[in-house]
Every structure is written in C-alpha cells, then in structure tokens.
C-alpha cells in the first residue's frame, strides 16, 4: 500500500486569543458578560481553544439597540456605497482565507481540504454575489422601490459556521438591513474573526453585531421585541419553537431546517460517478449537512454493482486529523452530536438493518464516528425517517421510477434530492415529481451563491441564495 | 455480422461516464499531498515505471544507445537509483538498443503498426510488428485505427488487435487508444474494453503525436476499465499514460490515482508505465533534492 506521510496544515497562521467578548456596536467588549462564559473545544482533540462570553438578556438588548441605531444611516446609503463595504469584506475574506480555513477546521473538526476548497471560496463568493445586487434592487422583481425590513436576528448552526454566516449576513446587508448574529455555541470562533473583518473593512458600527452563547441566548434574541426579522438555520425542533414564539408578533421569519434527502440511482446511471456522488452526498462534512443524501435509493437491477463499488470506495476514505491535507473525514463536532449518532445507529441495528463500515481506526482522543452504511433498510426504520446528521447512509431499493418517487417523497422533510441517470428525459420526469427544494442531477452537494436553497414541508420555508434570497430581507 | 452486433451491444452496454463527475474526481485526487518518506518511495516507483522514450525522425543509433545507457543507470552518481521500466523506440532503432539492454531486466518496447497514424494496410502493420519482435523488442506499442473505431466498425479494430497480438508472439502488446482523438470518455471506456477483449496486455492513452495526450481523467476511466475487466474475466491488464507527463508532481498524481482507484495490484512496473522522456530528469532532480536537501542544477543530470 502506498502510504501518505502526514501532511498537516500549519496552525501557526491563526492566532486564537484565550478569551473573547461580544462584538457590539463595532467594538469587542471585555470578555465575560451577563450570561457568563463557556469554552469552545477542538472536537478532534478535546483541547480548549478559547473561552467565549455567553450573551445574557441585557447584552442582547444592547446588541439589538446598536443594530437599531445603525439601521437608519445604513439603509439610507446608496446601494453602490453598501456594495463597496461588501466587496471589501469579500476581498478581506479571500486574503485571510488560509487563516479562516485553519480556524474553521480547528473549531468545527471538518477536514482542511473542505474548509479550504469548499467553505472559504463559497463564503467569499456569497459576499461578492450579494455586493453585486446592492445597487440593483429595484430590478430584482420585488417592486419598484423595495425597502429593507430593519433589524435581522440571525441564528446559525455549527456545521458550516462561516458559510452559514455568509448566507445570512451578505443578503441582509446588501438590502440595507442591520444584523445581530448568534453563531452556534460549539463553533463561535470564525464568526468572531468575521467581526474583526468588519472592523478591518471599516463597516459602520452596529451594522453587524456578533453575540455568542447557547440556546438561551438564541431564544432571547429571536424573541426580542426590537427585532423585525428572524432567520434561523438548524434543527426542525428548534425551528418549530421559533415559529411558535414569532407567531403573531409581525416579525418576518425564514427557516432552513433538517432534511432526509433521497439520492436516487437508476440502473442506467454512470456508476463510478454515482458512487462518488453517494460518498460526497453523505460523507462530505462528516454528514453534518442538512441537505445530505442520507437515504440512498438504488434500482434493484443495479444494486449489487453499486454496493460493491460503494464499499470499495468507502475503504479508501481517510479519517483522522482534520488539519491533515489528505483527510477526507474529520471529527464529529461535539460529544452531544456523537451520542445522537450512536443512539440512532444502535436503533438501526436493533430494528434489523445490516450495518457495515470499512476497517477504520478511530483516534483515541476527540469525537469520531466511522463512515457507516445500513442495508436492508425499510421506510419504517428510524434510520430511514429521522435525520442522523452524521456519516451514516441508509440504503433502500426500488424497482420502478414510480416507486422511487413515492419512497423519496415519503418523508416529513423536503430539502434536497439527487437523481443519477444517463437518460435526460427520466431525470426531468422524476425531478418534476420530487417534493424537495433542491434537486441535483448526476451530482450532489453542489452550492453556488446564484442558486436559491431552501426546503419544503418540515425542512423550512423561505429561500437563501440567488435573487430569491433577497426577498426575505425586503419589505 | 453477429460478431459486430455482439461487440456493439457489449461496448454500448457499459455504464456511461459522466464528464463533469470524472473530471471532478480526478481533480480531487490531484490535491493529495505526498511528502517526505511517501514522496521518496513514490519517486523510486515512478522511475521504475518510466518507459524512456524517443520517437523522432532524427533518432540515430548513437542517440538511442545513450538513452539505453541512461535507462540502465539513470543517475550515474547514485547506485541506489533504480533502473527504468523500459526503453521505447521506433522498430529501426531496436537492434541498437537491444545490444545495450541485453540481460539487464529493462524491457525494450517498440512502436509498430504504422505508428503514429495507424493508416497502413494490415499486412504492413503485421510485418512492422514481426520485424520489431525479431530485432529484440519484448513489448510492442500498437495504435488502433481511430477512423474505424469512430465509424463504429468495432469488429475491424478488434480483428486488427487480435492479428497484431498474434504477430507479437511472446512480446507484450500495448494498445494505444489515442484518447485525444476519441472525443468522449464513453469512447475511452469502450475502446479500453475493446482492446482488452481482443487480447491487449496493456492499454495506453496516446502516441504523444497529437495535441491532447494523457490526462488524469482519461487515465482514471482506463483504470476503472482494467479494474472492472479483471473483476469480470480474472485477467489483469496494465495501463500506460503517455505524453505530457513532465514533472514529478504530475507522476505522483497518477500514482495517487492508482492507489485510490485500483490499489496495490497496479502499483508495479509490470502493470503501470509512464510513456515519457523529460519526466525522468525531473524525477532524478527531486530524488537528489530529497537525499541531499538541495536542488542540483540541470547540468548535473544527463541530457539524452
């Protein structure tokens, strides 16, 4: 076997302070706040990276007030002026991309090749893209003189910390809104570095405020009466609570929630590329992807070939140090998430599905889960219905396109789906009947700032990205 | 007629190749970082896989003898440096190379069958092959008739390969698909299977004489073909990308691709070769850098 020697990316490019305060009204406050402090760890080693402040209700008040007072002048700026700030932010992100990529991998556990080659390029692209819209809003199709909404409360998840920040902040600022954003408690660091980028770009104080904290901080923020718009990405359970608390307040709401995407492989698919797509669909980012292709539907006539090929391919996946440039699968983001994956996979075995993982040594320290597939899964199994949010694939089979469509749609979710076939007419016919916000044909997990993203049913509502993504921030 | 139908049905029944997907996979594999000890092992393996090639109208006996001497001792200053896989020359040059290589373990390959166009009658191609083998070549690199392949005359191409294979006798047959002229990855996969079904010992990408030579995605499709062919028939076939592979970095990308597509069984000069000329000096330069810690200038490596 051709063994690759360790090829770690240097972590010396990033300078993490021992503790961080909140970023309100253009300044970093002293560490410690009314909600106390908490630690953020490197999930690959369990090493503490920094101590971060938990924003309490008084802190949230101040952040919302800062955003409110910044809103008037910011929204009054000509679009071209706001665009200048966004372009500047995008360029600084590109200049600091190596630093941010290493930081993202340290705090999140994702492989450096993903933070370097996927996350950071997309983050910059989102700011560039929405910078371009800032002076063209009258032509976006949302009325002759679209107006911003006001103060946006944005709560984002830990799976793509900086990318989800970009998805939220870029369209909000382009349309003239101001922002209070709360990153996830396990991955606050890149958002805090983004705060520094806002300062570097001379963004007016209060336009972007970053407050850190756990669920309680998030709840206080979205329930704050000074907020005009709530944007949330995360679990369906929390999304439901937010929808309830926002109901009747007049706040605008967009939710991007869970998923249980079907990845449908027909027997005339380009098999080698389909297998790559299956792997990318579920093992990309350790399966911590709301649109992950977590249910594989394979046509029975291609089942043996696909499964043999998939297992062979999975045996080459390299799990380990997220900072090693050759790592394909990094660490699970937290002990809590690891436990959830364990509970659901144990349920899969108990309910009678057959479990398989390639030979794979897990590091002693940190949170790890080997890439896993379950075969013999039926629609009634928990692993076919509930979102696992880990590197776990449930494999089901079908005989006819009608059966594939029926099974694919038989889920409370509807975020994404994939179709693999060399026959264009079949792809179009099936895509037409799938109830999912994003449908990929002969590819999976491809993102672009110009393309709207969002769900059906319990996967949420509203769209992010593209021209459609502007609508959520225009009155 | 039946043979034609069977071949057509088999070749067109192979799974399609998605262009975007195969290019993305090849690009992803190319980002692997191979350093230190892994790099040293890769360089030595790559040297052993080189088919050191000269295919010029201006080749002379003196030039090919020098090349053969270099094949035996690529780095005269370092006896630990392995010899290359083979020397590859035109049939007229085979006798001069054979003298130098005799008994060395370095193979002698010759391009035959009206290389590089393949545009000659079959009897000329067969005579070309027999002459090269008689002069001492133990590997024959033949070109397929791309015109016939693109016109869908698969039986014609098949029969030609069978005939050349027979003319080779004990010599190994490498079949050059000239992938730069096949236009699609689907065609590359079909031509690979066609050559293997007809008895090829190796499938090779290119002559090096058309603008597009070996690429990573084309080689990936060919590696998948030899992998699937062995799974189906039990017979292992080698792969040789040729043309345009000039640097150690390029060579290592191919080795990574073998490693993660077909595995160990093909990580051997018996089953994988690089058709190249300038690649060898870059491998030697990088090898010296790894052992001594500094780069020696080009004047420290022989020009052949």
From TrEMBL, chain A:
- Annotated Aldehyde dehydrogenase domain ranges read 36-474
Is the keyword Ubl conjugation in the record?
no
Which Pfam family, an example, fits this chain? Aldedh
Q: Which InterPro entries match?
A: Ald_DH/histidinol_DH (IPR016161), Ald_DH_C (IPR016163), Ald_DH_CS_GLU (IPR029510), Ald_DH_N (IPR016162), Aldehyde_DH_dom (IPR015590)
Answer yes or no on keyword Oxidoreductase: yes
Q: Which residues form the active site?
A: 256
Transmembrane segments annotated in the record for this chain: none
Keyword annotations for this protein, in alphabetical order, are: Oxidoreductase
Q: Please give the family membership noted in the entry.
A: Belongs to the aldehyde dehydrogenase family.
Check the record and name the Gene3D superfamilies matching this protein: Aldehyde Dehydrogenase, Chain A, domain 1, Aldehyde Dehydrogenase, Chain A, domain 2
The protein here is known as Aldehyde dehydrogenase
Automatic annotation (TrEMBL), chain B:
Read off the InterPro entries from this record: Aldolase_TIM (IPR013785), DeoC (IPR011343), DeoC/FbaB/LacD_aldolase (IPR002915)
Could you tell me which pathway this protein works in? Carbohydrate degradation; 2-deoxy-D-ribose 1-phosphate degradation; D-glyceraldehyde 3-phosphate and acetaldehyde from 2-deoxy-alpha-D-ribose 1-phosphate: step 2/2
* Keyword terms, alphabetized: Lyase, Schiff base
* Pfam families found in the cross-reference section: DeoC (PF01791)
Please list the reactions this protein catalyses: 2-deoxy-D-ribose 5-phosphate = D-glyceraldehyde 3-phosphate + acetaldehyde
SUPFAM superfamilies (UniProt xref)? Aldolase
Major enzyme class: lyase
Gene3D superfamilies from the UniProt entry: Aldolase class I (3.20.20.70)
**E.C. number, please?**
4.1.2.4
Q: Which domain of life is it from?
A: Bacteria
Q: Which NCBIfam families match?
A: deoC
Protein family according to the UniProt entry:
Belongs to the DeoC/FbaB aldolase family. DeoC type 2 subfamily.
Put simply, this protein is called Deoxyribose-phosphate aldolase
- Species assigned in the record: Winogradskya humida
């Amino acid at each position: 076997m051709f063994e690759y020697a360790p090829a770690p990316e240097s972590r010396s490019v990033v300078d993490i302070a021992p503790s961080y305060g909140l970023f309100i009204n253009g300044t970093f406050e002293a560490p410690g706040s009314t909600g106390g402090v908490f630690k953020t760890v490197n999930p690959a080693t369990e090493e503490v990276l920094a101590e971060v402040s938990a924003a309490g209700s008084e802190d949230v008040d101040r952040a919302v007030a800062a955003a409110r007072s910044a809103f008037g002048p910011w929204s009054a700026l000509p679009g071209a002026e706001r665009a200048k700030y966004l372009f500047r932010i995008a360029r600084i992100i590109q200049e600091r991309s190596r630093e941010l990529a290493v930081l993202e991998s340290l705090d999140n556990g994702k492989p450096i090749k993903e933070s370097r080659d996927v996350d950071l390029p997309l983050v910059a692209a989102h700011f560039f893209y929405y910078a371009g819209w800032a002076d063209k809003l009258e032509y976006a199709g949302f009325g002759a003189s679209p107006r911003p909404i006001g103060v946006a409360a944005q709560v984002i998840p830990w799976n793509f910390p900086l990318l989800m920040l970009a998805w939220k902040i870029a369209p909000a600022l382009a349309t003239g809104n101001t922002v209070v954003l709360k990153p996830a408690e396990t991955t606050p660091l890149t958002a805090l570095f983004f705060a520094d980028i806002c300062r570097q770009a001379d963004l007016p104080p209060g336009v972007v405020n970053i407050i850190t904290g756990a669920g309680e901080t998030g709840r206080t923020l979205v329930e704050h009466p000074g907020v005009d718009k709530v944007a949330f990405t995360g679990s369906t359970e929390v999304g439901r609570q937010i929808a309830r608390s926002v109901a009747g307040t007049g706040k605008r709401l967009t939710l991007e929630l869970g998923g249980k995407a079907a990845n449908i492989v027909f027997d005339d698919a380009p098999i080698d590329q389909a297998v790559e797509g299956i792997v990318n669909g579920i093992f990309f980012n350790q399966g911590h992807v709301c649109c992950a292709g977590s249910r594989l539907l394979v046509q029975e006539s291609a089942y043996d070939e696909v499964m043999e090929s998939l297992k062979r391919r999975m045996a080459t996946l390299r799990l380990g140090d997220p900072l090693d440039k050759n790592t394909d699968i990094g660490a699970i983001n937290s002990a809590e998430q690891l436990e959830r994956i364990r509970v659901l996979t144990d349920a899969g075995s108990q309910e009678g599905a057959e479990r398989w993982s390639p030979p794979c040594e897990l590091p002693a320290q940190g949170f790890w889960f080997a890439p896993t597939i379950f075969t013999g899964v039926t629609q009634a199994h928990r692993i076919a219905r509930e979102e696992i949010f880990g590197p776990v694939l449930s494999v089901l089979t079908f005989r006819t396109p009608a059966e594939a469509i029926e099974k694919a749609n038989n889920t409370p979710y509807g975020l994404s789906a994939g179709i693999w076939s060399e026959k264009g007419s079949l792809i179009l016919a099936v895509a037409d009947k799938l109830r999912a916000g994003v449908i990929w044909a002969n590819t999976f997990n491809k993102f672009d700032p110009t393309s709207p993203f969002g769900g059906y049913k319990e996967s949420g509502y509203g769209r992010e990205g593209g021209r459609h993504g502007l609508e959520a921030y225009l009155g | 007629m039946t043979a034609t139908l069977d071949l057509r049905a088999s070749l067109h029944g192979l799974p399609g190749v998605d262009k975007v997907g195969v290019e993305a996979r090849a690009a992803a594999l190319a980002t692997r970082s191979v350093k230190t000890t892994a790099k040293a092992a890769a360089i030595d393996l790559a040297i052993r896989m080189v088919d050191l090639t000269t295919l010029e109208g201006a080749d002379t006996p003196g030039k090919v003898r020098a090349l053969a001497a270099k094949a035996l001792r690529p780095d005269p200053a370092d006896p630990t440096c392995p010899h290359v896989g083979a020397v590859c020359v035109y049939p007229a040059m085979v006798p001069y190379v054979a003298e130098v290589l005799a008994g060395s373990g370095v193979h002698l390959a010759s391009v035959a069958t009206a290389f590089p166009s393949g545009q000659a009658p079959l009897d000329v191609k067969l005579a070309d092959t027999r002459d090269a083998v008689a002069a001492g070549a133990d590997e024959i690199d033949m070109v397929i008739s791309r015109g016939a392949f693109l016109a869908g005359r698969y039986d014609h191409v098949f029969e030609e390969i069978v005939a050349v294979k027979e003319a080779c006798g004990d010599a190994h047959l490498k079949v050059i698909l000239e992938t730069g002229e096949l236009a699609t990855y689907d065609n590359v996969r079909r031509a690979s299977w066609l050559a293997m079904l007809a008895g090829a010992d190796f499938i090779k990408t290119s002559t090096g004489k058309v603008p597009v030579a070996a690429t990573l995605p084309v080689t990936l499709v060919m590696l998948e073909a030899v992998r699937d062919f062995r799974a189906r028939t039990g017979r292992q076939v080698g792969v040789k990308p040729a043309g345009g592979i000039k640097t150690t970095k390029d060579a290592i990308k191919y080795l990574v691709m073998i490693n993660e597509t077909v595995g160990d069984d093909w990580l051997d000069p018996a089953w994988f070769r690089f058709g190249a000329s300038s690649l060898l000096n870059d491998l030697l330069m990088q090898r010296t850098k790894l052992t001594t810690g500094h780069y020696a200038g080009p004047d420290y490596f022989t020009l052949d």
